[in-house]
Amino acid sequence: MMKLWRWRSRTIIRTVPLHCPMALPSPDPQYVLRGANDAVNTLCFHCRDPEPELPILFSGSSNGLIPIWNMKTHRIDRTLDGHGGKSVYWLKTLCNRNALLSQGRDQNICLWDLAEGRSAVTDSIFTENVGFCKCSLLELSERRWLLATPWRGLEEVRVWELPSKTSVCTLKPEADAKLGMPMCLKLWQLQQTYNLTNPGIAEVTLRQDKKILATAGWDHRIRLFGWKKFKPLAVLDYHKATIHCVAFSDHTQPSKRLMAAASKDHRISVWSIYNQT
Within 13 Å, how many C-alpha atoms sit on residue 188's CB side? Predict the structure, then answer.
């Protein structure tokens, strides 16, 4: 195949092989949720028992609110308000599906009772930490968890056992170490290290079937990797600002699994990808 360009008095001929592969375009979101009215910092899917046709989605916003999204209507069903207008930047449901943990810039970690339509804060932990580091939750057994949270000193991390709120340990740097404040925490039972070529990752999330890992990038992109060999699978380029978080639904039927990402651009993109059994 020949392509011909004329530039002033010169003619330039460029030959393009017919077999030259063309890059596939980036897929679009299945749909986009609008109406958060502020930057979205965190997401958490929630499937009630018995399992519904579609999950619901919690999002935490910079205005201190926690909208609960109906994934059928693509609208907000109701909104939780318990952080005094301070930014909410971490959410996690507990295994019984009716309890929600939320972390806010008011330095509180709140436990919500959502059973039978309730929206009450039943307990809280005051961290005295003014940083931006999100908590990390690890399930040890049924109804028993470890919670790692940034603590009073800007360089400290405290680990709690829940629901008893027993302090397990406080992690502090050595006296002569200058590590700075923690920016990301992850409780993990196996330890592996991977080097990423694109710096600036706000969150890393592993799908419940442990096949797909997603990263939320400062460069406005979502990157997907195969977990077993950490093989790059896709780069999703939709958002126009930093992506703060990415979450997978825990639906047991692969065809109904969803992934959502939220950004400083006030939008939540919802995706249905790599849902083979």
Answer: 10
C-beta atoms surrounding 203 within 10 Å: 22
* Rounded Cα gap, residues 166 and 185, in angstroms: 19
**Inter-residue contact 118 to 138 (CB < 8 Å):** no
How big, in percent rounded to 5, are the helix, strand and coil portions of the chain?
0, 45, 50
pTM: 0.73
The DSSP code for 207 is: -
CA separation for the pair 46, 251 (Å, rounded): 9
Say whether 72 sits in a helix, a strand or coil: coil
The answer to whether the CB of 29 falls within 8 A of the CB of 251 is: no
pLDDT digits (tens, 9 = 90+) for 249-276: 877 777 778 999 999 999 999 999 888 6
Instruction: Characterize 258-276 residue by residue with b for buried, 16 or more Cβ atoms within 10 angstroms of its Cβ, and e for exposed.
Output: bbbbbbbbbbbbbbebebe
121 exposed, middle or buried (CB, 10 Å; 0-12, 13-18, 19+)? middle
Instruction: Return d(Cα 164, Cα 146) in angstroms, integer.
Output: 10
Q: What is the dihedral of CA 154, 155, 159, 163, to 10 degrees?
A: 10
Q: Which two tokens stand for residue 90?
A: 């971490």
